[in-house]
Specification:
- By secondary structure, the chain is of the alpha+beta class.
- It is about 65% helix and about 5% strand.
- It has a 4-stranded mixed β-sheet with strand order 1-2-4-3, with helices on both faces.
Length: about 280
Amino acid sequence: MFLFVVFITTLVYVFSKALGIGNLTLVGIALIISGIMSIGSYYYSDKLVLATSGARQIKKADYPNYYRTVENLCIAAGLPTPRVYVIDDPSPNAFATGRDPKHAVVCATTGILSVMNETELEGVIAHELSHIKNFDIRLMGVVAILVGFIAIISDFFIRITFFSNNRDRGNGIFLVIGLIFAILSPIVAILIQLAVSRKREYLADASGALLTRYPEGLASALEKLEKDKTPPRFASNATAHLYIENPFENKKVKNFFTSLFNTHPPLEERIRILRSM
């Protein structure tokens, strides 16, 4: 979060110098736009995710074992019971979303409910509830907003630079630096977002194991996810970071550079850490 603040402040300073306009003018315009996006994302991001994922809310009678697992683990974790959803998708996966524990959602695919035994399902649900308890669902929402903010001000700068009739720029050197920043900064912002996402996955694994007192349950569940090759029906790049495991097989890469763009740590590494507990 500190890196994002420094990053945004630097961008605004460079863009302002390049355009020769007051810093407050540029910041003010960017804040108004991002403020509207932030409010909408904060209150409605969970609804958008559920709608695009084809999720439906269930009652205990629909999936009693799944529902009771969520209830029991919430009691153990000291959390209010979230709304429980299911996605009719044979690809096994699960995610949590919402802005805080009182407005949270746990969602699982029919695929994961059909392949997991009781202890494995407990491990998966404990992982998702840990995201809720650790406020990862809020953190990742804020990070996503900051990434969007950087994309907006970079696009704003490029449009003014190339499409404005005003050619009286503030500083030629800053103009060149600004153009470089405008092109590269959204990529850097996404890399930071993905790095934060990977760290929170490790934390949720550890917190989930602490909640169930049985790391092997989650480790075994992750092993099944690693072996399963069923393509997802509803997951998208925009929601991939929410799931317990990246739903897209082609993103499971090994080399360092391309792994920077992974939304999750390698499954084998997560399994190794869980089994070392």
